[in-house]
Design brief:
By secondary structure, this protein is an alpha/beta fold. The chain has three domains: about 5-135 and about 230-425, P-loop containing nucleotide triphosphate hydrolases (Rossmann fold, 3-Layer(aba) Sandwich); about 135-220 and about 440-455; about 495-524. Helix content is about 45%, strand content about 15%. It has helices spanning about 5-15, 60-75, 100-105, 135-150, 150-165, 175-185, 190, 200-215, 255-275, 295, 300-315, 335, 350-365, 370-380, 415-425, 425-430, 440-485, 495-500, 500-520; strands at about 20-30, 30-40, 50-55, 75-80, 120-125, 130, 235-240, 240, 245-250, 285-290, 320-325, 340-345, 385, 400-405. A twelve-stranded mixed β-sheet has the order 2-1-14-13-12-3-11-10-4-9-5-6, sandwiched between helices. Strands 7-8 form a two-stranded antiparallel sheet. A hairpin with a 2-residue loop joins strand 7 (about 235-240) and strand 8. Helix 5 packs across helix 8, helix 6 runs antiparallel to helix 8 and helix 6 (about 175-185) runs parallel beside helix 17 (about 440-485). It starts with a helix and ends in a 6-residue tail after the last helix. About 40% of the residues are buried.
Length: about 525
Amino acid sequence: MTAQSDAIETIKNGYTFTTPSIDLGVLMVDSEAHPEVRVRLSLSMLNRHGLVAGATGTGKTRTLQLLAEQISAAGVSVFAADIKGDLSGIAIPGEPSEKLLARTQKIGQDWKPAGCPTEFYALGGQGTGVPLRATVSSFGPILLSKVLGLNETQESSLGLVFHYADTQGLPLLDLADLKQVLQYLTSDEGKAELKDIGGLSAATAGVILRSLVTLQTQGADEFFGEPEFDTADLIRTFNGKGVISLLELPNLQDRPAIFSTFLMWVLADLFHDLPEIGDVDIPKLVFFFDEAHLLFDGASKAFLDAIAQTVRLIRSKGVGIFFVTQSPTDVPDNVLAQLGSRVQHQLRAHTPNDAKALKATVQTYPTSQYDLAETLQGLGIGEAIVTVLNPDGAPTPVAWTRMLAPQASMGPMPADWLAKGVASSALQAKYGQEINRDSAYEMLTRKLEAGAAKAQAEQQAAAEAKEREAQEKAAARQAPRQTSSSRRAPKSGVEKVLSSPTFWNQAMRVGGDIVRTMWGTARK
C-alpha cells in the first residue's frame, strides 16, 4: 500500500462515525474527487461550535446553506442571518442545471431538489419578515455600549443608569425611555438621587445622548420596543425537520454594529432562558453568525469577555454556534480556541497582512500531510480544508474536501412568494403589531411635569406672600400719621370765634366802653 493510499485510508477511518451525522463533502486527492471517502460531522459535536472561513467568492455562503439544510433535515432548528439577501431560496427546492448535475455526479452526490421549512424575520419590521424586537432593558448596558461605541468609563456610567432605572421601577423599553432617564438624572432633581451611588457627569451623559441620537438616525427605533421576541420560538420543528429561522439584514454596511450586536443579544437571551442539558446526541439549535468580524471590531474587554463566556457555556444548553467570516484571525483567540469544527475555504496572500493571516491560519490546524500554506491558496470554489471533532471529541484528520451542493434554491425567493409566506405566518400575528405601553418616558414625563407644576405653584405662592408683606409694610408706615390726626377733633364754630384774634380785639374795645360808662369814666 502506497503512502497516498495510507493517507486516504486514514482520512476515511477518521470520518467514519456510528453516531448520527451530516455529510459535508468528499475527499480530494491531487485535484481528483474520491466519492468513497465522505467527510462528515457528527450531530453530537455541533454544540462544540465551528468556523466557516474564506475569502469573498470562495463558497462560504453555499457552505452555510449546505450545513443549514442538512442540520434541518436531521430535525435540529437553525438560525442564520441573510446578509446578502440570497439565502431566502433555502425555503424552495433548487432547480437542476447541466453544470450542477455534472458536479454532483462527479462527487457521487445523489442530488434531489428539496426545500426547508423556513421562518423569515426582519429587525423591527425593516424588511420583509416577522418583526424581531428587543427592549432596551433586556439588551443591557454592555451590548448597548458596543452598539454606541462607548469607552469603558462611559459604559460604566450607562450601567449606573440601567441600575437606577431597575431599582426605581422604570421600564426601559425603547430609546426614548433611555434618553428620558439620562435627561432626568442630569437635571437638578435627578442629580440628588444618584448622589449616594456615584452620580452621572453632564459630559458623559451628553456623549451617550449624542450616540443615541446617531443610533436613532440609523433606524434603531424600529427594533427597540415591544412585543419583545421570545427566542424560544427559534426552536421548532415541522414535519420532522428543524425550522430554519432566517433574519434579513438589509443595508448591513450602514449599521453593522447594530446587527451583529443584536445577534449577540439573541444568543445571550437563549443562554439565559434555556435549561442546562449537558452534552446531547442531537442539539436543540445551531446558530450561524455571518460576518462575525463585525461583532468583534472595536469591542471593549467586557464585551469580548461576555462573548467568550457565552460561547463556552451555551453548549451545555444544547446550542451550537458557527462563526462565518473571511479569516480565522477575525475571531479573538479565546473564542477561536473553543471552535471544534473548521471549514476553511481559499485564502489569498496578495498583501503582507494577507500573508500574515494565512500563516496564522495554518498554525491553528493539526499536523497533516498537506502543505497548508500552499493548499489553502490553491483551493477551488466550493472546496475547503476541513477538520472537525469526532464523537469522542478528538480532532479528525485534516481533509481537502469538495463540499456537497445545496439541494434548495441557491438564489433568492421571489418577493411576492416571500411576502405571502410572512403574511400567513402565525408569528406575524404574535409579533406584527408594535406595542407602546407605559414606561420610563411616560413616568418621568409625568414626574417632571408634576415637579414643574409644584415649583410654579410655590413660586406663585411666594410672589403673593411677598406682595402681601410689601402691602403690610406700606400700611404700617402710614399708621402713625393717621393716629396723630385722629386725636385732634375738628374745631366747633364757637372755638373758631374764641380763638380768633379779631374777636378778642373787638371784645376788648366793647368791654372798655362798657366799663367807662358804668363807672363814669367815659371820656367826654
